[in-house]
């Protein structure tokens, strides 16, 4: 089995390129509506961190924001009866809330929800006639070494090879720094990218 560095350099050689020929592509930034997971007030407890249950153990839905005052008072009385320490150090019992475990386990009164949000998406500007001819890459894999990229971003890079032809690939940030002329992708304006290959 070849070393990681040997594998990466072999990939570049097979493409007819050298490490110093590779550069970060330019980007076309577009504002788009995308589904994004964000924090919202927990729909189960209404942000109170506590829920009430009926005699059968089923959740009792909290009153809606415009509910009559008597309904709100009745619900709060049930909560207080079932959770005598509510409002002091107790940590909440809502099954839907985001839980924080430091410094102790508690519910936050918030939950994750997917909402359509306007975000800025960077599309790589590939050289004309670019060929994506790495022996690796595709999906979430690095075009230089073939490793699956889980935590860092993919970085779109391009090179004009010894034959004068344009080559492109998406690589992991580590390989961009280690093998290519891209020293610090994050400092060169790379955001979370939609890499079109």
Keywords:
elongated; alpha+beta; two-stranded antiparallel ribbon; 3-stranded antiparallel β-sheet; 3 helices; 2 domains
Task: Give a brief rundown of this model.
By secondary structure, the chain is an alpha+beta fold.
Describe the structure.
The structure is a single chain. The chain is α+β, with helices and mostly antiparallel strands. It has 2 domains: 4-25 and 126-188, no CATH class; 39-115, no CATH class. The protein contains 3 helices and 9 strands. The chain has helices at 4-14, 69-82, 173-179; strands at 23-24, 26-41, 52-53, 59-60, 99-100, 106-107, 110-125, 154-160, 166-172. The strands form 4 sheets. The chain has a 3-stranded antiparallel β-sheet with strand order 1-8-9. A hairpin with a 5-residue loop joins β5 and β6. It is elongated. The protein starts with a helix and ends in an 18-residue tail after the last helix. The model is unreliable at 187-197 (pLDDT under 50).
Topology (SSEs and partners):
Elements: H1 4-14, E1 23-24, E2 26-41, E3 52-53, E4 59-60, H2 69-82, E5 99-100, E6 106-107, E7 110-125, E8 154-160, E9 166-172, H3 173-179
Antiparallel strand pairs: 1-8, 2-7, 3-4, 5-6, 8-9
Average pLDDT metric: 83
Taking the alpha carbons of the first and last residues, their distance comes to 29 Å
Strand content: 25-35%
Q: What overall geometry do the principal axes of the alpha carbons give? A: elongated
The protein's oligomeric status is single chain
Cα radius of gyration in angstroms: 26 Å
Largest sheet: 3 strands, antiparallel
Please count the helical segments: 3
Helix content: 10-25%
* Number of separate strands: 9
State the secondary-structure class: alpha+beta
Q: What is the chain-wise order of helices and strands?
A: HEEEEHEEEEEH
Whole-number tally of structural domains: 2
The spatial strand order of the largest sheet comes to 1-8-9
Parts with pLDDT < 50 across at least 5 consecutive residues: 187-197
């Amino acid at each position: 089995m070849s070393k990681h560095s040997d594998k990466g350099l072999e990939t570049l050689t097979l493409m007819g390129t050298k490490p110093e020929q590779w550069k970060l592509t330019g980007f076309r930034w577009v504002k788009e509506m995308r589904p994004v997971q964000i924090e919202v007030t927990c729909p189960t407890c209404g942000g109170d961190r506590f829920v009430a249950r009926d005699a059968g153990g089923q959740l009792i839905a909290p009153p809606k924001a415009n509910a009559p005052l008597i309904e709100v008072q009745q619900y709060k009385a049930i909560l207080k009866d079932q959770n005598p320490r509510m409002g002091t150090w107790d940590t909440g019992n809502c099954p839907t809330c985001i839980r924080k475990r430091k410094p102790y386990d508690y519910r936050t009164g918030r939950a994750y929800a997917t909402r359509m949000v306007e975000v800025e998406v960077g599309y790589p500007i590939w050289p004309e006639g670019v060929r994506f001819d790495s022996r690796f890459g595709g999906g979430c894999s690095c075009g230089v070494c073939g490793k699956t990229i889980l935590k860092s971003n993919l970085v779109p890079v391009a090179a004009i090879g010894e034959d004068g032809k344009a080559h492109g690939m998406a690589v992991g940030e580590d390989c961009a720094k280690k093998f290519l002329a891209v020293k610090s992708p994050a400092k060169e304006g790379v955001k979370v990218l939609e890499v079109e290959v």
